[in-house]
Amino acid sequence: MKSEKNIMTEKMIEAKNVAKTYDIEERTITVLEEIDLEIDRAEFVVIAGSSGSGKTTLLSLLSGLDSPSRGTVKLAGRDITTATEDELAPLRNELIGFVFQAFYLVPSLNALENVMFPAELKHDTAAREKAEALLDRAGLWSRRRNRPEQLSGGEKQRVAICRALVNSPKLLFADEPTGNLDAENSRGIIRLILELQEEHQATLVMATHSGEIADMADRTLVLRDGRLVQGGAPI
Predict the structure, then answer these.
(1) What is the separation of C-alpha 222 from the centre of its chain, rounded to a whole number of angstroms?
(2) Whole-number Å distance between alpha carbons of 232 and 64
């Protein structure tokens, strides 16, 4: 039987020889190539690099939002490389949470309804209870009935974080989650993400160009020109 320590170090993400190319007219554009990485359960990993280095593309491949042109991607031991959209949709809703720079809240739903939505897709009878607890934890209880247009940027991102965590995902992906926020809101958002990540024991993979955030991570992977630069410094 595995010890608790060994369970906590199981690989949640494995990428082998991953590449992503796009054919544009008669040209082949290589965005990522020869990506090999492993990320452990409950680890916080930052993917750093300058704009255009391939951070968002790599997150999309690791989370199953896009498929690699070459190589394999496994999530929690499951090979998702050739999975169909019908196979990936329930996997994403059960295993993965997303936090994006642009929030992507549903305009017609209030904050509570936005957070409840992924749990309702699973027919979770405790969807409202879980959403209310997360909003309270995020300091948004008084804003729960407000729609996105009535919320500040920082409040929208906190709602998005609660939504990403309502199903207690094992994997949390965040793509420049503070990119649209001022310094004070950014610090609060990162603090909230890390607190909830620790409470849920989720694996957190965050794309950012912030050296301050990278310093908080267990490990930083640096992308330069579509390749991982081991031991490099964020640029």
Answers:
(1) 17
(2) 26
Helix (H, G, I), strand (E, B) or coil at 13: strand
Cα Rg, the chain, nearest whole Å: 18
- Measured at the CA of 226, the angle between CA 222 and CA 227, to 5 degrees, comes to 55
User: Position 224: which residue type?
Assistant: R
First to last CA, the chain: 43
Q: Where are the alpha helices (DSSP H) in the chain?
A: 4-8, 55-62, 85-95, 111-121, 127-137, 153-165, 183-200, 211-214
Phi-psi label, residue 7: left if phi above 0, alpha if psi -120 to 50, beta otherwise: alpha
pTM assigned to the model: 0.88
The answer to whether the CB of 118 falls within 8 A of the CB of 163 is yes
Q: How far apart are CA 134 and CA 209, in angstroms?
A: 28
**What pLDDT digit, counting tens, does each position of 52-88 carry?**
889 999 999 999 999 999 999 999 999 999 899 899 8
Q: How many CA atoms lie less than 13 Å away from 199 in the CB half-sphere?
A: 12
